[in-house]
Design goal:
Oligomer: single chain
Distance between the termini: 56 Å
Helix content: 10-25%
Number of helices: 6
Radius of gyration: 22 Å
Number of domains: 2
Low-confidence stretches: 1-24, 27-33
CATH topology of the largest domain: Cyclophilin
CATH architecture of the largest domain: Beta Barrel
Order of helices and strands: EEEHHEEHEEHEHEEHEE
Strand content: 25-35%
Shape: globular
Largest sheet: 9 strands, antiparallel
Number of strands: 12
CATH class of the largest domain: Mainly Beta
Strand order of the largest sheet: 11-6-7-9-8-10-5-4-12
Length: 238
């Protein structure tokens, strides 16, 4: 009886021309014939329509992230989320016309990327910034998603009023170190000097008092709360 063992598989995904019919994806496999011990390679074809969106794109990078969120946003149209903390909940409505940032936040929320992270920067009467954590399980989830930045989108005139959720721009110097799509901040007061440089992509509809409570926490010299302020979870609302 002849047996064939598969030792390695390399998928080469073709993500171009996504609006046309599904592409056939080439797959290279290395096999060993147990009767005639000789390693050979052959190419087979797989129908990419059977792959999920995430299987076709992840891990994300600067080259494919925009294409991914363009497709993801058409399928996932939700624009309301809730942030859970020990101080109470914060309800947020995301702006539909800031489409890539809305899709990014919904995607990360559905994949529980923010769960267990912290509001790690608190500046009274200015902003509370969250989404960051040094915990191994959070970093592991981030590595699975990928490493990418989104370009700023400030075309729609959204002002950094009190209670706006915003994201640092991909054009900021050393953006990978200082900020990322996994980061966000909420303004405690009007901060119009941020307009044009940071992307406001939503507003609080309920829970401004919770923002104030977090803003009043005692912090160290680096604006990190002396007692960690955890984001228990963020969930998408119907």
């Amino acid at each position: 009886m002849r047996l064939i063992l598969i030792f390695s598989i390399l998928l080469l995904f073709n993500c171009e021309d996504k609006q046309t019919k599904p592409k056939l994806v080439k797959e290279k496999v290395t096999v060993i014939d147990t009767i005639i011990p000789k390693a050979t390679e052959k190419v087979i074809e797989i129908d990419s329509s059977k792959l999920t969106l995430e299987e076709r794109y992840l891990p994300l990078n600067d080259d494919n992230a925009m294409d991914f969120f363009r497709e993801y946003g058409k399928i996932n149209k939700q624009n309301k989320v809730r942030i859970y903390t020990k101080f109470g909940n914060i309800d947020i409505q995301l702006f539909d016309n800031v489409s890539f940032h809305r899709a990014n936040f919904i995607f990360l929320t559905k994949n529980k990327i923010f769960d267990g992270t912290q509001f790690h920067r608190v500046v009274k009467d200015f902003v509370i910034q969250g989404g960051n954590s040094d915990e191994a399980k959070v970093l592991k989830k981030r590595r699975k998603i990928g490493r990418y930045l989104l370009p700023p989108d400030v075309r729609h005139g959204h002002k950094h009023r009190r209670g706006v959720i915003s994201i640092p721009s991909g054009e900021i110097k050393n953006a990978y170190k200082l900020a990322s799509p996994f980061e966000f901040f909420i303004t405690q007061s009007n901060q119009f000097h941020l307009d044009g440089e940071y992307t406001a992509f939503g507003r609080i509809t309920r829970g401004l008092d919770v923002v104030d409570k977090i803003s009043n926490q005692d912090v160290d010299g680096g604006n990190w709360p002396r007692h960690n302020v955890y984001i228990t979870k963020i969930e998408v609302l119907d």
